[in-house]
């Protein structure tokens, strides 16, 4: 089992390198730094001097891979690839357009992102799994039918409408909580309540349906028939037998997103003005701040890979076949 | 004495007029039509029938565990004085596992994979005996020991995947017994198991039943199993019970034409080389049940009345009743008919002068086992470990063994579908191993294969004509369009199918017909050798007879050689000329059919033969009980692979693998009991 | 008129051809035919299909583009053909059909069916005594309800009258369609028309005709009502710059369809090829392909799309000379978005197909083919691909709705379609602050919501029907 985990860890390395190369290609090979400079500076001020100054300020004036003019190891290190891509492995993401250190910014913005994403994730999981269990218990009844109809209808509504509608109703009409903003300390819940509620609500449709399918698939298996033949009640069968087995496919989809919670949600954070990583990313996209987008792509991939490893780890808890092999 | 009589008379279960149907779209397809029977404490009633006759649906309906589409249309199931069909669900749960317990066919999927054996046992004890804590544990240990599981303490903490198939079924039985049921329903309890394990499990069930004076309802398609287990037998056909008789009467004088035909269709000793009696046609589908007698369409003795009016029960002897219009009730002893029909296909099989078509020498197929961080090869699964065989034109060599012995791998390696690790496969002197695909192509039409599962062996997306024509095209035998069509029509006719079948698709055919299509596909390229991998094991007895007859006819007409891979000794006896018995990747005994089956020399062959339940009461040889199960081919035991299970093992067996001892020109055996050839 | 062939048009019509080819294949193969027949029996599925067809019709009309001849050069064109000047505006057939909606722009916001603007404005009114007086009032719209003249009070009656007429026409058309369907069924099942009619409504035929008829009735009623009201009024009001909202939602349909369908078209060949090759050949090829898709899927989709779209925008902005019209530029960005979405979403299907191929290649009919020495390519083409078809079809319909939803979110974030291109995303983005206005402007959002919800819901319901019919586990033994 340990060998299995070590192998998964080792496998993550080439993937990270691959991600790094893809990002690099996307940002520096598809377009030259000159193009980026022209875009950033706008049409009016584009003079060759302005472009080279822009590049020099950001360290984009170096060669891509090999610096012929440098000496020693600097042949490789004094290049765009090394300074902008390879150094990300060391946690050095460079500076944003506003001159701030990206790494420090990321650390400080993780808190608000997590404050929204984590409760949304936990409450959402509990609500959807319970709802799916309920539908499974009453399968092939009217409750099940209309539950599924509700799910399909809910998943046909764009996430934007949940947020717009939620803000309008709760904050504007009922004036229950502030429409947006973020505060630390005890007052934070006022700002968190609505985003979390909307986050949970918008995820109910598709997740419930997905879990219900998994439960129904498990419930048609032979061991469930055995459990019923033992004289166990339907609830016991559902919770002790079906749920335990259904955890395996559910974990595949759920655990992998846990590390990504740090990244926050683009939509929620920008609508509610929460100073997290999601709104950071959106602002960077709108300001065409390439350094920040690049850093976020890299961190996102790292988080995803951590998620994959966590998923493997979680299997060993729920699936004895992996634990003992 | 009087008390014993009273116990015997206590009726545990009485079923009256039970009807079951399955919902399909907007219609209901009847599966079981008004059957009735009863089970007395201490006896075993066997419900015998082919697939789709409704026997499993009946068993599930008794516990009200039918799948969602199943409906109980009517009838009465009274168990211990209560009508189960009218019981509220909460009380019914007390009956399940408590009064009545059930064992299922597939032990691999019937246990919950993520709960320990102990947990799954304890569940029943807590539910029905209200035990808890240390009492549960003690009782669980008792139960596991009772079903013959060694080291019960350790097994309690293990998960199902850590147990072998036989052990899983023992756990299933322990779970079924945990609630102290008075009636045990066993639905094909040994069908998924190997013969030696089947023998162990059947013995266990018999012992437990006797100890606990349980009633047992055994569902089976296997006459052999029924002969060993049943007190009384009920035969089901197309959703009805057509005959019910005490065991003795059933096996000595079956009355219903269907029962008689079933006996006649079984390949066995008495009619070697002859043609088997077959039942024409197939069981009518659920949606179009005929009025009148349901067997009439396939019955040779049917007349007008049979087609118009369903027969009523008729008592023919004490406890023996039958639903058939044949009022004289003279049951013909099966076999009499058969021997008349028998058109001996006697080929002089052992023409030693005939040149060998296929020579396999020291064939090994090893699969690497990869472990650890770097996935290094830490060992090999020795699926085939030094197999040699020869086969001449017109001969049938049967390769017999239990699951996992490597017999299928041998077939695939001969066909070059798997790469051999070492050894040689020669076709008429030409080496096949290591040849390029292009070079192999002309040889491919010489050898073909028929597979076990007629449902997985035909591509559902292709028409039958395309399936059969595939080989012709691939091997460059593509002729003019008309000739191509004619060739397909001819080969369809050869296997007994109408030529309009060419335009239809596999799903329109039954299992037996599909197997005919698979045979036609192989025959289309006019091979000399056909490797048959368990071609009848997925088929019902009556259909199996049709396929075996077809194979025999084709061999007589075309001079085909067969490599017949099977676990079924009855089929071997019927069809083969030569037999090789495999154990853990190696051939342990070989010889002619008479030599191996009539005077088996290897202890494994003997045990295997004795474990096969015969469909007769008289010919039951003494059962040699094999302890344990087949070891993993990744770690075969030192010395003779068989010694851990062999009662006659000596020191030599533990140290060296025995060389072949030649007993006759054709008979040899790998066993230290016989003089070893000088080194 | 000069036809303008946009790349997305080409792909859309290619899709139509592909759909026809798939239909032809399905008609020939009994298993596929049976599966489609199961779809045909599904009532929710068939009602959704009817609704979707209406959307597709709008989208296809909007996918034939041309540039109209400018008035000035409309003279003796034959004399000087080289000097023809074309408008820079690229129009589609839909634009022509909706000319009144497209051209009759008001000044700014107006409510649905309004005759006056949404906000008060200062106007100078010449009073009875001849003096000019400043007055603040809701000004009359330039086009909305203009035909009423001074008779503004007749507004409700006029609307009611038009609705009544629309219902009448709808009833007539529907009756004709229903009769045609009953006639068709009567011929197919060789029974009387009355009996066919009864079977349709009793749900006893092999086609959910009743669902189709009900859906058609609703569509006809709503569609004709809108058509009757659209010319004299603004059915969904106008937006900030006075553009008709109904026109915008109808234009959004094509964008949604392109995103939902072309993306799948882009990713299908890649994922099928890589998935099948990885599963069939295994070994290092499998390792390589698995590495490829794990790497790509490890980059969070939104971020990869953001990065790619940003870069794409740089390319587009630095090469303005590539495009002769704004429509072409917007179209390229749309296609780029489809492509990027395709790249980020092929991995899931690829993984699925690889797993299924791994299972299939162990099946006995593949081994039988190998025993004949059939080449790998032929085995893949004859035995593997046809048996993967159901997965591909299911993936295709399941992805559609999520892609349409994704477009809205991406456009909102600013990494979606070109801001000048009308789509649900840009509509929502433009309208999201309007709820905060006093008095509230709700109709843009409401219209986008209703149309988008209808489209996605229909797609989801059809996807369910298709999945139920094609998934062998759900459809029972095929």
UniProtKB/TrEMBL annotation, chain A:
InterPro entries xrefs: BPD_transp_1_N (IPR045621), MetI-like (IPR000515), MetI-like_sf (IPR035906)
Membrane topology: Multi-pass membrane protein
One Gene Ontology term, aspect cellular component: plasma membrane
Keywords: Cell membrane, Membrane, Transmembrane, Transmembrane helix, Transport
Domain ABC transmembrane type-1: 110-314
Domain of life: Bacteria
The keyword Flavoprotein is assigned to this record: no
Main location: membrane
One Pfam family from the record: BPD_transp_1_N
Homology family: Belongs to the binding-protein-dependent transport system permease family.
Protein name: ABC transporter permease
Gene source species: Candidatus Accumulibacter affinis
UniProtKB/TrEMBL annotation, chain B:
Membrane topology of this protein: Peripheral membrane protein
Gene Ontology terms: cellular component: plasma membrane
Pfam families: ABC_tran (PF00005), oligo_HPY (PF08352)
SUPFAM superfamilies on file: P-loop containing nucleoside triphosphate hydrolases
Main location (coarse class): membrane
UniProt GO molecular function: ATP binding; ATP hydrolysis activity
ABC transporter domain ranges (all copies): 13-263, 369-609
Family: Belongs to the ABC transporter superfamily.
Name listed for the protein in its UniProt record: ABC transporter ATP-binding protein
Organism: Candidatus Accumulibacter affinis
UniProtKB/TrEMBL annotation, chain C:
GO (cellular component) term, any one: plasma membrane
Domain ABC transmembrane type-1: 253-463
GO biological process: peptide transport; protein transport; transmembrane transport
Keywords annotated in UniProt: Cell membrane, Membrane, Peptide transport, Protein transport, Transmembrane, Transmembrane helix, Transport
Cell compartments where the protein resides: Cell membrane
Transmembrane segments annotated in the record for this chain: 6-25, 46-66, 166-186, 207-236, 256-281, 293-314, 334-353, 388-415, 440-463
Protein name stated in the entry: ABC transporter permease
Membrane topology of this protein: Multi-pass membrane protein
Record-stated family: Belongs to the binding-protein-dependent transport system permease family.
């Amino acid at each position: 089992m340990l060998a299995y985990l070590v192998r998964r860890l080792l496998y993550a390395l080439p993937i990270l390198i691959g991600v790094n190369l893809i990002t690099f290609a996307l940002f520096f090979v598809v377009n030259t730094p000159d193009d980026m400079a022209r875009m950033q500076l706008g049409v009016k001020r584009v003079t060759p001097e302005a472009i080279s100054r822009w590049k020099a300020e950001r360290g984009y004036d170096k060669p891509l891979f090999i610096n012929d003019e440098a000496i020693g190891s600097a042949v490789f290190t004094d290049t765009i690839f090394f300074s902008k891509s390879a150094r990300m492995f060391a946690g050095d993401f460079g500076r944003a357009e506003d001159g701030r250190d990206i790494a420090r910014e990321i650390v400080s913005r993780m808190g608000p992102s997590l404050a929204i994403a984590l409760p949304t994730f936990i409450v959402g999981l509990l609500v959807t799994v319970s709802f799916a269990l309920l539908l499974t218990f009453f399968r092939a009844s009217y409750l099940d039918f209309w539950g599924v109809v509700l799910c399909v209808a809910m998943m046909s509504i764009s996430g934007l409408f949940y947020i717009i509608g939620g803000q309008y109703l709760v904050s504007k009409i009922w004036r229950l909580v502030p429409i947006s903003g973020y505060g630390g300390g005890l007052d934070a819940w006022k700002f968190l309540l609505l985003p979390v509620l909307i986050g949970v609500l918008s995820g109910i449709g598709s997740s419930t349906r997905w879990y219900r399918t998994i439960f129904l698939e498990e419930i048609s298996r032979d061991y469930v028939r055995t459990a019923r033949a033992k004289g166990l009640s339907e609830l016991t069968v559902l919770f002790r037998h079906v749920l335990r087995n259904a955890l395996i496919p559910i974990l595949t989809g759920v655990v992998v997103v846990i590390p990504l919670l740090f990244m926050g949600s683009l939509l929620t954070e920008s609508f509610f003005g929460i100073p997290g990583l999601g709104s950071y990313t959106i602002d960077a996209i709108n300001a065409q701040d390439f350094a920040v987008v690049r850093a976020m792509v890299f961190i996102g991939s790292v988080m995803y890979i951590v998620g994959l490893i966590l998923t493997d780890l979680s299997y060993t808890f729920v699936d004895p076949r992996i634990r003992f092999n | 004495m009087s008390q014993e009589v009273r116990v015997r008379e206590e009726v545990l279960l009485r079923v009256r007029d039970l009807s079951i149907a399955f919902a399909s779209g907007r219609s209901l397809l009847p599966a079981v039509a008004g059957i009735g029977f009863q089970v007395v404490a201490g006896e075993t009633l066997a419900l015998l029938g082919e697939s789709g006759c409704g026997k499993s649906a009946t068993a599930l309906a008794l516990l009200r565990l039918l799948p969602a589409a199943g409906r109980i249309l009517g009838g009465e199931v009274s168990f211990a004085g209560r009508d189960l069909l009218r019981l509220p669900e909460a009380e019914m749960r007390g009956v399940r596992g408590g009064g009545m317990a059930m064992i299922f066919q597939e032990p691999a999927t019937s246990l919950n994979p993520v709960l320990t054996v102990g947990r799954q046992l304890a569940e029943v004890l807590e539910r029905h005996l209200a035990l808890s804590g240390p009492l549960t544990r003690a009782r669980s240990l008792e139960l596991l020991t009772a079903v013959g599981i060694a080291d019960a303490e350790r097994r309690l903490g293990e998960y199902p995947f850590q147990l072998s198939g036989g052990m899983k079924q023992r756990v299933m039985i322990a779970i079924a017994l945990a609630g102290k049921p008075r009636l045990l329903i066993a639905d094909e309890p040994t069908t998924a198991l190997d013969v030696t394990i089947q023998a162990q499990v059947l013995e266990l069930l018999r012992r437990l039943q006797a100890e606990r004076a349980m009633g047992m309802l055994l569902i089976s398609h296997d006459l052999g199993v029924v002969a060993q287990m049943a007190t009384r037998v009920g035969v089901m056909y197309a959703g009805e019970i057509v005959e019910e008789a005490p065991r003795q009467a059933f096996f000595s004088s079956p009355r219903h034409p269907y029962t008689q035909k079933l006996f006649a269709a079984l390949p066995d000793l008495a009619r070697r080389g002859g043609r088997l009696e077959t039942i024409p046609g197939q069981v009518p589908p659920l949606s179009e049940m005929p009025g009148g007698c349901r067997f009439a369409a396939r019955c040779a003795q049917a007349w007008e009345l049979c087609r118009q009016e369903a027969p009523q029960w008729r008592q023919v002897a004490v406890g023996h009743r039958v639903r058939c219009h044949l009022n004289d009730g003279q049951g013909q002893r099966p076999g009499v008919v058969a021997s008349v029909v028998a058109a001996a296909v006697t080929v002089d099989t052992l023409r030693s002068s005939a040149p060998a078509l296929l020579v396999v020498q020291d064939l090994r197929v090893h699969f690497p086992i990869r472990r650890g961080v770097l996935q290094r090869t830490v060992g090999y699964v020795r699926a085939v470990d030094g197999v040699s065989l020869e086969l001449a034109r017109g001969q049938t060599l049967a390769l017999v063994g239990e699951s996992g012995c490597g017999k299928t791998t041998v077939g695939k390696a001969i066909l070059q579908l798997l790469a051999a690790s070492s050894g040689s496969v020669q076709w008429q002197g030409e080496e096949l191993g290591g040849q390029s695909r292009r070079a192999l192509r002309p040889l491919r039409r010489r050898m073909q294969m028929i597979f076990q599962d007629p449902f997985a062996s035909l591509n559902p997306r292709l028409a039958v004509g395309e399936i059969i024509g595939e080989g012709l095209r691939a091997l460059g035998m593509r002729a003019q369009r008309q000739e191509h069509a004619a060739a397909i029509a001819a080969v369809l006719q050869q296997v007994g199918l109408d030529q309009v079948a060419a335009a239809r698709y596999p799903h329109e055919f039954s299992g037996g017909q599909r197997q005919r299509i698979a045979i036609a596909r192989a025959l289309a390229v006019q091979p000399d050798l056909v490797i048959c991998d368990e071609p009848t094991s997925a088929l019902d007895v009556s259909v199996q007879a049709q396929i075996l007859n077809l194979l025999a006819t084709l061999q007589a007409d075309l001079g085909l050689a067969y490599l017949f891979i099977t676990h079924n000794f009855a089929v071997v006896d019927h069809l083969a000329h030569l037999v090789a018995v495999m154990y853990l990747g190696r051939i342990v005994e070989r010889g002619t059919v008479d030599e191996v089956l009539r005077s088996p020399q290897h202890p494994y062959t003997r045990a295997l033969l004795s474990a096969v339940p015969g469909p007769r009461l008289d010919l039951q040889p003494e059962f040699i009980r094999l302890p344990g199960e087949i070891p993993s081919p990744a770690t075969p035991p030192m010395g003779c692979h068989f010694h851990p299970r062999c009662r006659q093992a000596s020191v030599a067996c533990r140290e060296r693998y025995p060389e072949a001892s030649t007993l006759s020109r054709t008979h040899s055996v790998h066993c230290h009991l016989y003089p070893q050839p000088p080194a | 008129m000069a036809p303008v062939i946009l790349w997305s048009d080409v792909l859309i019509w290619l899709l139509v051809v592909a759909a026809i080819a798939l239909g032809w294949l399905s008609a020939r193969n009994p298993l596929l035919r049976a599966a489609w027949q199961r779809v045909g029996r599904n009532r929710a599925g068939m009602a959704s299909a009817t609704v979707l067809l209406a959307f597709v019709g709008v989208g296809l009309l909007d996918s034939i583009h041309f540039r109209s001849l400018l008035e000035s050069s409309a003279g003796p064109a034959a004399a000087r053909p080289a000097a023809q000047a074309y408008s820079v505006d690229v129009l589609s057939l839909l634009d022509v059909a909706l000319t009144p909606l497209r051209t009759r722009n008001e000044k700014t916001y107006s409510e649905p069916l309004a005759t006056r603007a949404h906000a008060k404005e200062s106007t100078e009114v010449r009073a009875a005594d001849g003096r000019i007086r400043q007055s603040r009032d809701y000004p009359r719209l330039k086009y909305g309800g203009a035909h009423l003249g001074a008779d503004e009070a007749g507004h409700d009656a006029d609307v009611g009258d038009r609705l009544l007429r629309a219902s009448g026409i709808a009833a007539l058309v529907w009756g004709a369609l229903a009769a045609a369907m009953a006639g068709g069924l009567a011929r197919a099942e060789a029974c009387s028309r009355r009996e066919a009619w009864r079977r349709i409504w009793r749900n006893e035929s092999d086609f959910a005709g009743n669902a189709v008829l009900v859906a058609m009735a609703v569509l006809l009623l709503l569609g004709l009502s809108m058509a009757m009201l659209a010319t004299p009024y603004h059915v969904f009001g106008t937006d900030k710059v006075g553009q008709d909202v109904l026109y915008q939602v109808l234009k959004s349909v094509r964008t949604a369809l392109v995103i939902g369908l072309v993306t799948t078209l882009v990713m299908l060949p890649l994922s099928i090829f890589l998935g099948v090759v990885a599963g069939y050949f295994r070994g290092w090829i499998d390792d390589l392909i698995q590495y490829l898709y794990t790497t790509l899927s490890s980059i969070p989709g939104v971020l990869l799309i953001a990065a790619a779209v940003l870069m794409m925008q740089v390319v587009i902005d630095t090469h303005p000379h590539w495009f002769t019209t704004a429509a072409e530029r917007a179209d390229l960005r749309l296609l780029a978005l489809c492509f990027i979405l395709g790249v980020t979403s092929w991995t899931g299907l690829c993984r699925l197909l690889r797993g299924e191929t791994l299972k299939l290649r162990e099946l006995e009919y593949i081994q039988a083919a190998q025993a004949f020495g059939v080449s790998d390519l032929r085995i893949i083409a004859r035995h593997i691909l046809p048996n993967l078809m159901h997965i591909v079809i299911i993936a295709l319909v399941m992805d559609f709705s999520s892609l349409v939803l994704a477009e809205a979110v991406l456009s909102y974030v600013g990494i979606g379609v070109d801001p000048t291109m009308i789509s649900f995303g840009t509509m929502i983005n433009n309208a999201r602050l309007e709820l905060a206005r006093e008095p509230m402007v709700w109709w843009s959002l409401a219209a986008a919501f209703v149309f988008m919800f209808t489209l996605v819901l229909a797609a989801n319901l059809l996807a369910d029907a298709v999945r139920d019919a094609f998934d062998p586990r759900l459809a029972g033994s095929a």
